[in-house]
Amino acid sequence: MMESIVDNEANAGFGAQAGRLALIALGSVGALLGAGVVTGFIVAHQQQGGAMTARQLLILAGALLFVLGCGFTAWRGIRAALAAGAGDGPPTPREGRYRAVMLIAALTGAVISVILMLQNDALTDNPIGFLSGPVSPAIAIVLALLVGVLIPALSIYWHLRAIDEQEAAAYNKGALFAAYAYWIGAPVWWLLWRGGLVAAPDGVAIYLVTIAIASVTWFWAKYR
Amino acid sequence: MKNRLKVLRAERNWSQADLALRLDVSRQAVNAVETGKYDPSLPLAFKIARLFEMSIEEIFDDGEHRG
User: Fold this and answer.
1) d(CA A138, CA B35)
2) Which residues of B touch A11 (CB under 8 A)?
3) What values do phi and psi take at A81, rounded to 5?
4) Which residue has the higher pLDDT, B9 or A74?
5) Which residue of A has its CA nearest to B11?
6) Whole-number pLDDT of residue A7
7) B16, B29 in Cβ contact below 8 A?
């Protein structure tokens, strides 16, 4: 009895946690990019006019299947993560707040991504153009408010009420690694560009790499 | 840092969730402390000590033995 109390709990291995996160991340990104391809394909077809050929319909069906498959993969990952967390009974109040904020943040991210995909003319040329292509001023203001007001409010609540000190320490470690990667990586790229050795520094790429380093470090520090 | 948290918890038949609830942390944090992957802050160490009605030194061992 005592053994089961001790051993059947939140000590799932780093690999299992990483696997679940990979399922969620790959599924979500795949679904997002696939949805971008589908949207771009439909928009391009509408601009050309006429009925879709059998080949175009096949491509569209394939892309839709890909989106569904990726969405299902992400859903499996989320279900597995929730099941692993529920292995020892209902979540504690702090864990409940944690999950609620995660859900709101994920929904906000999904809404922002969908708006960007539907807005971006670049979709017709580039399926991932929504990451950096132009948007209308009104949409830009709405999205900037979402990111600039809602996310900070959520983050404050997250850090004060949802996470505990172990996760805060993991965040601090991730922030430190990301900050150094930025402080060192950005000027190195800039200097190499000035020397004519590489392409001009890309703000979006630097931002994504910084986020990735912070996230990977946080994950390692939290679940190792 | 080594500690007796897992044993003390098991002696009381508490799950990690039970202990997490009492300490107001996540199960992951309880697990990280138990396995020595995370050293708790002083406030959390005091909280743990009060919960088990022991001194911090009776629960945590930093490997520095007093002569």
Assistant:
1) 51
2) 16, 31, 34-35
3) -65, -45
4) B9
5) A2
6) 46
7) no
Is-above-0.80 flag for pTM?
Answer: no
DSSP B12: T
Whether ipTM tops 0.90, in short, is no
Per DSSP, the three-state class of A48 is helix
How far apart are the C-alpha atoms of A98 and A164, rounded to whole Å?
10
Contacts of A132 (CB under 8 A, 6+ apart): A204
Query: Does the beta-carbon distance from A164 to B29 stay under 8 Å?
Result: yes
Q: What is the pLDDT of residues A98-155, one digit of tens each?
A: 889 988 988 888 888 778 777 765 445 555 566 667 788 888 898 899 889 999 999 9
Residue type present at position A31: A
Contact yes or no for B22/B50 (Cβ under 8 A): no
A200 bridge partner residues:
none
**In whole angstroms, how far apart are CA B13 and each of A26, A73, A123?**
39, 37, 58
Region at B48 (left for phi over 0; alpha for psi -120 to 50; beta for the rest) = alpha
Average pLDDT over residues B14-23: 93
C-alpha A62/C-alpha A161 separation (Å) is: 44
pLDDT of res. B67 = 54
Residue position matching structure tokens 């089961």: A4
* DSSP H or E stretch at residue A222: helix A203-223
How distant is the Cα of B3 from the closest Cα of chain A, in angstroms? 15
